[in-house]
Design brief:
Structural class: alpha+beta
Number of strands: 5
Helix content: 25-40%
Radius of gyration: 18 Å
CATH class: Alpha Beta
Distance between the termini: 73 Å
Strand order of the largest sheet: 1-2-5-3-4
CATH architecture: 2-Layer Sandwich
Number of domains: 1
Low-confidence stretches: none
Oligomer: single chain
CATH topology: Ribosomal Protein S5, domain 2
Largest sheet: 5 strands, mixed
Length: 128
């Protein structure tokens, strides 16, 4: 099997993934997964598509992630891994779609408007 690559995005985070056959090592920005994402919850999010397909020990994954925060980065990585697994075997798409891993979450931060402290928040109203 040659190297399969895919792209995942979430908020302002972008994850590029390179999947090869191997023993289940996941490298994120040249560091181990548990070193880059110390939280077990974020590690779980990244591994979700592999757990659904029982492929944790089947592929070596190399991720390049930039932009955003930890949550956005982990969800971008999940989408990228799911897309790469679909490229490897198209029959897995229905199982991944049932869990919601193939759909790109398009929610972005709304821009701040002039004359307001935040995007929708207004300054406190004072009658007198």
């Amino acid at each position: 099997m040659e190297v399969v690559n895919a792209l995942g995005r979430r908020k302002s985070a972008v994850a590029r993934v390179y999947v090869t056959e191997g023993s289940g090592k996941i490298i994120v920005n040249k560091r181990e997964l548990n070193e880059y994402f110390p939280s077990p919850m974020l590690q779980y999010v990244v591994k979700q598509p592999l757990e659904v397909l029982d492929a944790l020990e089947k592929y070596d994954i190399q991720l390049n992630i930039f932009g955003g925060g930890f949550t956005g980065q982990s969800q971008a990585a999940r989408l990228a891994i799911a897309r790469a697994l679909v490229k490897i075997n198209a029959e897995d798409k229905s199982a991944l779609r049932a869990q919601g891993f193939v759909t790109r979450d398009s929610r972005e931060v709304e821009r701040k408007k002039p004359g307001r402290p935040k995007a929708r928040r207004r300054f406190q109203f004072s009658k007198r």
